[in-house]
Amino acid sequence: MRASLIQIAVDPDEPVADRRARAARLVREERGAADLVVLPELWPVGAFAADLFQPESEPLHGPTYKSMAAAARDAEVWLHAGSFVEAAGGALHNTSLVFSPDGELAASYRKIHRFGFDKGEAVLMAAGEDLVTFDLPHLTVGVGTCYDLRFPELFRGLVDAGAEAFVVPAGWPARRRAHWRLLAQARAVENQAYVLACGTAGSHAGVEQAGHSLVVDPWGEIVAEAGPGEEVLRAVLDPAKPAAIREEFPALKDRVLGVAAPRRTRVR
């Protein structure tokens, strides 16, 4: 399976509508070159541009949805369209959309772990509640977003739901680039699954982005890695590899916590 991660640059001087059109063009350019295309987190506005979250928010079936659905259909690819600011029921969500090659919505995911502690996304957006997977031909994919990468229990849950690969769009800051690579490899190794981690280039509200999107195989080896600027990172995945690694080195079968509720021991 051929995957293309579009590490789009976010320029604060580029209007959102123009960047949406540019992203759609970049997706269409992958026609014939990819089976799966991935965009980063909050690329329409920038992950750190909190002042734009409310004014640039959209309903689920808004401009980003329509643009990305058309791009997936025209390119004839599975498209993880990164995420956008969704307005729903009086709340905002950091929402990812996945489209099939016919342009139909295959999955949507509202980010569970919101970054910012006591500001930004953490206070402006509501948390999602559902673990989400979608099925490609011969591969089940779990969905996470950026800060989710720091919470291994989410990915364990996705493995229990059948995931053999994870797609993680992000707006990861350059000052924590080493964590980005380390965590992507850790999630791959511990779950014996592919990790497709797609970040942004450029700057979000003055926060330099890490770039360095990467594809990690189920043994933890980096298959491909981008540089710091805008580029399209391409890699070939073997859908049989997760099962083969899990059979060769069956560590997941030795899990204890999470398989059954641990017994409590009373101190007498």
Report on this model:
The chain has one domain (2-253): Nitrilase/N-carbamoyl-D-aminoacid amidohydrolase, CATH 3.60.110. It is 23% helix and 28% strand. It is built from six helices and 15 strands. It has helices spanning 16-28, 63-75, 121-124, 152-160, 177-191, 241-248, and strands at residues 2-7, 9-10, 36-38, 78-88, 91-99, 105-110, 133-136, 139-143, 165-169, 194-198, 201-204, 207-208, 214-216, 222-225, 231-236. It is globular, with a radius of gyration of 18 Å.
Please, what is the CATH homologous superfamily? Carbon-nitrogen hydrolase
Q: Share of helix among residues?
A: 10-25%
List the total number of helices: 6
Overall tally of structural domains? 1
End-to-end span in angstroms? 57 Å
Q: How much of the residues is beta strand, in percent? A: 25-35%
> What CATH architecture label applies?
4-Layer Sandwich
Q: What's the quick description here?
A:
Residues 1-239 form the CN hydrolase domain. Pfam families: CN_hydrolase (PF00795). Helix content is 23%, strand content 28%.
Set out the fold topology:
Blueprint: E1 2-7, E2 9-10, H1 16-28, E3 36-38, H2 63-75, E4 78-88, E5 91-99, E6 105-110, H3 121-124, E7 133-136, E8 139-143, H4 152-160, E9 165-169, H5 177-191, E10 194-198, E11 201-204, E12 207-208, E13 214-216, E14 222-225, E15 231-236, H6 241-248
Parallel strand pairs: 1-3, 2-11, 3-4, 8-9, 9-10
Antiparallel strand pairs: 1-15, 4-5, 5-6, 7-8, 10-13, 11-12, 13-14
Which short descriptors sum up this protein?
268 residues, alpha/beta, Nitrilase/N-carbamoyl-D-aminoacid amidohydrolase, six-stranded mixed β-sheet, 15 strands, globular, C-N_Hydrolase
